[in-house]
Each structure stands twice: as structure tokens, then as C-alpha cells.
Amino acid sequence: MNEKVNFGKFIWSLRMPYLWILLIVVPLEFLIFKMQYPYPNFRGDSVSYIAAAFMHADAAEWPVGYSKFLSLIHYFSHSDTILVSFQYLLLELSALLFLFSLKYFIQFGKVVFNIVFAFIVFNPLFLHLGNYIMSDGLFISLSLLWITQLLWILYRPSPLQIIPHALILLCLFTVRYNALFYPLVSSLAFVLSSLRRSVKIAGILLSIVLIGLFIGYTENKFYALNGVRQFSPFGGWQLANNALYMYTNVELKPSAEVPTQFQELDSVIRQSFISARKKGMILNPYIKDYYIWDGNSPLMQYLKYKWEGDTMTDMFTKWASMGPLYSDYGKYLIQEHPAAYLGHFVSPNMSNFFQPTIADLGYYNQGTNSIDYIIAKWFDYKTMTMTHVPENSELSVIRPYPFFMAIFNFCFLLCILLFVLFNEFKKLPRAFNHTAIVITCFWLLNFLFSTLASSIELRYQVFQLILNVFFSIISIELLIKFSNTQKQQIITVGM
User: Fold this and answer.
1) Residue range 354-397, pLDDT digits in tens
2) Are 309 and 236 in contact (CB under 8 A)?
3) Neighbours of 486 (CB within 10 A)
4) pLDDT tens digits, residue range 110-140?
5) Distances from the Cα of 397 to the Cαs of 186, 358, 363, 403, in angstroms?
């Protein structure tokens, strides 16, 4: 760690040629990119986010943080180019801040710095994430700011850091539910830091209090909407969706033995699977969110059955009202068949974690040139048809990233294993050891959360990919230095 030079002067000392690359190359590559993709990349969920922004909703299908972000940008400009430019710039700057902080504290070699710098600046995935009207780019940017904050808490701790840390964590929580395990990682970082015990406790508690207030606020909003107190209806749908992936592989109880509150729902689900089997259909070909969104899924069929004839209630209220029942039903199935759940949902999901599917991120506007009415109105488009689209909607440049994810997951785990086997943690600075422990903790919790509770796509794992790349490349250099030092010692002894 550089004790004498402050962080601002340290960054300025790196300005050449990196400053020129940032000022010239980054805008130029974005300009070329927008010439090929002049419109943002939309998908069905983009409509939900923009609709929530339109209505200034405080409770929606997804966490409202991204919709609030859209509203903030919309207040200053209705331009889609301004929005995606800001998303891309925020992603680049947050990644660079993390890189510069690592360089400032760890002082790794110039070659490694250049490799990681190039990964950030010339990464086409960042361009497409910035152009995506989804919460992914914002969530990744905030996650990078959060992990950078943890880095400073470990290397240069200060009591004043607990406030921005808690605010960043709160923002993350409002953008995506994947942040559910982030407070555990933050708590570990505070425990490992050299802050006073009272400051550590204050830092942990402040984050918990702010997140708790947000959860309570959201539950009250849903209660006012449909009389059901819940934090996330999607969580209930997700749990039931996950459980149904084992449904055809277990021996079900007779209908009469199913708990009374689930019998009607269970009957509809059984009939759906029986009907699909008769038609030669397979309802669950691979782990995803089919049962949540597909109109033919048994969960959607039951929703239609329960609200049949109701033309007054809006679809979102209907959808949200099913969350608690589906949550309880999913828990019931998993508790009844834990081994089947592990075998038919968790196990295949593990392979998805190491090499996730590209899914919708691999296609531009889902392969169509049409634009939803609410999107057109939000961005002041004069037509609901894209006037310029690429000839091929498939984003072939994204195709290698699942393979990269597999490689760097392996590299990350191998580096951790080698450090432990070589007992290097005792020879490296304590703050670096603590950083390695925190990042490893994040990997483990992300692995458990992803494989046990959610469907996995590439866009959900980009932040993990960034951590894997950064940590693996830096660790490889440290291991090489250690190997060379050992050889030099052997040669010296031999002489």
C-alpha cells in the first residue's frame, strides 16, 4: 500500500497513456457501437420497469430501484442515447475505480494492470449491458462500487466509510434481490477490518436498519395494494417455479393427502402435467423461469382460474396476490422431496452456474423490430417500429462469455486452492489475505444463492465474472513471483 501518495495523485500518476485511451477510445467505440445498434436493447421486462417508472410505483414486479433510476434520467432527458450512454459510462468508471483501488493497495505489475485495463475498456459485454434497458448494468456498477468500498474498509478503514457503504448497499437492495446475501459479505469485511469494535457494529447495524426499513416500506405498499403483506411476490413465484422442476420425478401423495390449502392448486398442476404428457410435451426442458412467465404454465393457469371473470382488477395485482400461496406451496414440495429437489433442480443448476446460458442477453430486441407502446411513449419515439436494425438479431460477440465464465470460475478456485496449499496467506500482507477471504466468501454465497434459489443466466453472473478475472490474474502473478523467489532461494542455498 502506498502510504505517502494520496489516491487522487496516484491515479494522476497513471494518466499516460490510459487517460488518452479513456478520452478517445471509449467514446469512439461507443459511437461505432451505436451506429450498429442505434436503439437500446429491449425485452419484456423492460416494459415492466418503464411502466413502474411511468406510474411512480413504489412496489412492482421487480425491485423499484431501476425504475427510479429511469425516472431520474427521464427528468433531465427523454433521449434513449443519454440513458444508455450514462449506463455504459457508469459501468466503465465503477470497474476502473475498482481496478485503480486494487493497484493502489496491492501494487501488482504493469502487465497485469494492462490486461485488466483492456478487459474493462475493450469489453463488448459492457457495451451491450450499457445498451440494455434492464437493471443488470446498474446493479453491476453498484456492486463494483460496493466491493471497492469493502476494499477501502479493509486497507484504509475510517469510521466515515460506514455511511456511504450503507447507502450503496441500500441502493443495491432496491435494484435486485440478488443483493440479499451482500450484507453477510459486508459484515465479514467489517469484522476483518482494523476498525474499532464499536464502529464495526455501527457499520453492520446501519446497513441492516436501512435495508429493514426498505423491506417494511415495500411490505406496506403491497399490503395497501392487495391486502397481503409481502416483500417480493416474485420470490413466491420463483420458489414454486423451482419446485415444479422436480414434479415429474417424484412420487406424489394422493390428492386427498395434500394439505387443504394446496389441494385446489395441486389439482390444477397435476392436470397440466398429465395433459402435457398425453400431448408428448415436456414442461420443464431446462432450468429457467418457464413456470413464472409462460401463459401455458400451470402456475399461470391457476392464476387465470382464480381470477376468472374479474375484469376490474389489473394484472399486476392478480399476479402479486398469488405470491404468498406459491411461496408456501413451493416450500411444501421441497420439504416433502428434498432429495429430488437437490437432484432435479439444484444439481443441474450447478452446471449452469459454472457455465451460464446466454438467454435473452444474446439477442437484440428479442429478434423483432417492434417496440412496445409504453417504451415508445417514454422515449418519445414517433413510431413503434425500429427504423434501423442489424441484419442478424443474434449478438454473436456474447457467445464466448459462458465459456469465459467457466474458465475463470476454474481459475479462481484453483488460485484459492494454491494459496492455501502453499500456505501463502501467512507471507502476504494481512489486508490482501482478508480481501481474498471476502471475495471467496462472496463466491460461495453467490454459488449457494444462485444454485439453491434462482434460475441462472449470464447477465446475473457478470459481476462474479469480473471478480474472477481480476482476482485470478492478480493471484497468478503473485504465485509466479512466489515460485521465482523459491527458485532463487534454492539456487542461493546450492551455491
Assistant:
1) 999 998 888 998 888 899 999 999 999 999 988 887 877 888 99
2) no
3) 11
4) 999 999 999 999 999 999 999 999 999 999 9
5) 34, 11, 10, 12
Q: Quick one: 405 exposed, middle or buried, by C-beta within 10 A (0-12, 13-18, 19+)?
A: buried
pLDDT of residue 490: 41
Confidence of residue 284 (pLDDT cuts 50, 70, 90): low
pLDDT for 316 equals 86
Give the mean model confidence (pLDDT) for residues 418-445: 82
Q: CA–CA separation, 386 vs 389, rounded Å?
A: 7
Domain boundaries, the chain: 233-336, 347-358+399-495
Residues β-bridged to residue 357 = 457
- Residue 56 backbone class (left: φ over 0; alpha: ψ -120 to 50; beta: rest): left
Rounded to 5 degrees, what are φ and ψ at 456? -115, 130
| Cα-to-chain-centroid distance, residue 29 | 25
Helix 110-121 with 80-106: angle, nearest 10 deg: 170
Distances (CA, A) of 245 to 17, 342, 363, 422, 461: 52, 11, 26, 42, 22
Q: What is the 3-state secondary structure (H, E, C) of the chain?
A: CCCCCCHHHHHHHCHHHHHHHHHHHHHHHHHHHHHHCCCCECCHHHHHHHHHHHCCCCCCCCCCHHHHHHHHHHHHCCCHHHHHHHHHHHHHHHHHHHHHHHHHHHCCCHHHHHHHHHHHHCCHHHHHHHCECCCHHHHHHHHHHHHHHHHHHHHCCCHHHHHHHHHHHHHHHHHCHHHHHHHHHHHHHHHHCCCCHHHHHHHHHHHHHHHHHHHHHHHHHHHHHHCCCCCCHHHHHHHHHHHHCCHHHCCCCCHHHCCHHHHHHHHHHHHHHHHHHHCCCCCCCCCCCHHHHCCCCHHHHHHHHHCCCCCCCCHHHHHHHCHHHHHHHHHHHHHHCHHHHHHHHHHHHHHHHHCCECHHHHECHHHCCECCHHHHHHCCCCCCECCCCCCCCECHHHCCHHHHHHHHHHHHHHHHHHHHHCCHHHCCCHHHHHHHHHHHHHHHHHHHHHHHHCCCEHHHCHHHHHHHHHHHHHHHHHHHHHHHHHHHHHHHHHC
pTM as predicted: 0.92
Residue 362 grid cell? 444474446
pLDDT of residue 495: 43
Region 180-193: what's the mean pLDDT? Answer: 95
* Cβ atoms of residues 366 and 360 within 8 Å: yes
C-alpha cell at 368: 423483432
